[in-house]
Amino acid sequence: MLGASRLLLPLAFRRLPPPRQPQSLVRAFSSKMAPKRKATSPVRPSPTKKPKAENAVSSHLSPAEEAGIIQREFYPPEMSNARCEQYHKGEIPRPMDVLHSKIKDTKAQRETIKVGESVVHWFKRDLRMFDNRGLSQASEKAKEAGVPLICMFVVSPQDYQAHLTSKARVDFDLRTLEVLRADLGELDIPLYTTTIDKRKDVPSHILQKFQEWGAKHVFCNIEYEVDELRRETKLIDTCLQQGVDFSPVHDDVVVAPGSISSGTGKQYSVYSPFFKSWVKHVHEHPHLLVESPAPSANPEAARKKFKALFDCEIPSAPANKSLSAEDRERLASFWPAGEHEARDRLDRFLAEKIKSYQAVRNLPAANSTSLLSPHLSAGSLAARTAVRLAQQANSSKRLDGGSAGITTWISEVAWRDFYKHVMAHWPYICMGKAFKYEYSNIEWEYDDEAFRRWTEGTTGFPIVDAAMRQVKTMAWMHNRCRMIVACFLAKDLMLDWRMGEKYFMENLIDGDFASNNGGWGFSASTGVDPQPYFRIFNPLLQSEKFDESGEYIRKWVPELKGIEGKAIHDPYGRGAQKQAEKAGYPKPMLDHKKCRERALERYKVGLGRSTANVGGGVHN
């Protein structure tokens, strides 16, 4: 839990439908159950039917689409389970495999291209100079040829929308870019930044810039989501047609997807054996942890030749992702940006906290985690750097030996790799489907009022409410609490878990799709390596175990700060009713025991149904 590792990461553009009249969940769970919307399958289109143009929305929307889970502005209807199974069996080419093949097949042709007037590195989620594989290779190529290195970053409002990027994350990235621009400037390396309104126009714009700068070699670090893998595959061909060598590089993970597999040659879907294989692979390939050199300084003439690029300012956040001045100031105080802050934070953690990490990492009030997740997500710190420095601080050079605190923390960084491997191998999880796509048959709820109370932290369960209010202030939540609130939404409320996944991405500063999806899959029992569906967190027991003194609750739920002893965990059930009522704290919105029984029944019935045609879109 890198401050919050597994469940990262996590309200801007596609809101839930307007709330209906409030409805008491306690009443809903009585014998007279109120009508509920059920997750019905959308109409299945012809497999050859192309997705609608952006902003064109079908007149028939499933509840998931109405809730904005499947964004019809950018994507086709929900994929069928049958098509998921084709991906699962490898009958449909995986975008990661297609990219690898393209890189291999074009290697000889690309190697014939001579260096032009400059070399370009395209920053995306690797906003640092230190230990950056793609940037280092670009700098080496430029230095060998004696030409300038140019860096670029593109702000894409539609990509932010399509990827559910939070306002806090956009602000953090832009603040990080300010630091990066200054650092590059000291080496006479320009950072070109611009805003491209339509995501489909990004490739043509950057190609135009390559021509304008006379660049024949372009480097970038690979992102493992489907959209980005397909974009990079197309760019290799498009660039080649214009005599440009476009080279995507593995950097975001310690071990690249596809590098390790089980004894039967399959991708791991359970973490424990994955981690053993991951450790073995890194021990056998120590170069994976070797630091990449920082870029060399440009020739002095670069500043004069590319003066306009040096004058280029970092864009403001687009309107759809802009924070208020108050929010910007608050979040900047919580989360200073840039790779220097990331390294300082890592160094302090290694010196002061990591030895006790295993013992106290689950206590949200203990301030015991690294708080590095925003930096890992934005790329102002490389996962490789984190593992290497933790290894150096250990008494053993084995990644799974020595200090229990250090090995536990390293294993949490490996969780991040694990989820990206899963995303690359089972790409349909990027398309609104669960890894366990058969869970599409479960009868989920889409109750707007219940969802609102969950997001606002007014459920009447103190540990849940404390965690949800922490997000509103810090754009971050402790990992143990992420699991508690996720289980509460998916199993107590029986809300479609993808509503929570979406909310996290839209509100967390450390939002990372793979880790966020993996964490929600764990808590909702729909993902790889999940808790079995019949294991349902009791929020009261979780509260008592991990916030025994109630310190975390009192910090984030001020209405309860005057309640002493064990009553803090359940004020209405433990004699503090008058205090809670006077302070305006709500009664529990549900009966956990009844909700647990309902969840068990829903999961059991749902998993017994045929799954082949649930969902109906191609969404390939």
Kindly state the number of beta strands: 5
**Computed Rg:** 25 Å
**What do we call the CATH topology of the domain at 42-48 and 61-72 and 435-607?**
DNA Cyclobutane Dipyrimidine Photolyase, subunit A, domain 3
Structural class: mainly alpha
Please give the alpha-carbon distance between the first and last residues.
33 Å
List keywords for this structure.
620 residues; mainly alpha; DNA Cyclobutane Dipyrimidine Photolyase, subunit A, domain 3; Rossmann fold; five-stranded parallel sheet; 28 helices; disordered N terminus; disordered C terminus
Can you offer a commentary on this structure?
The structure is a single chain. Strands 3-2-1-4-5 form a 5-stranded parallel β-sheet, with helices on both faces. 52% of the residues are buried. 46% of the residues lie in helices and 5% in strands. With 620 residues, the protein is mainly alpha-helical. Among the domains are: 42-48 and 61-72 and 435-607, DNA Cyclobutane Dipyrimidine Photolyase, subunit A, domain 3 (Orthogonal Bundle), CATH 1.10.579.10; 115-303, Rossmann fold (3-Layer(aba) Sandwich). The model is unreliable at 1-59 and 610-620 (pLDDT under 50). The chain contains 28 helices and 5 strands.
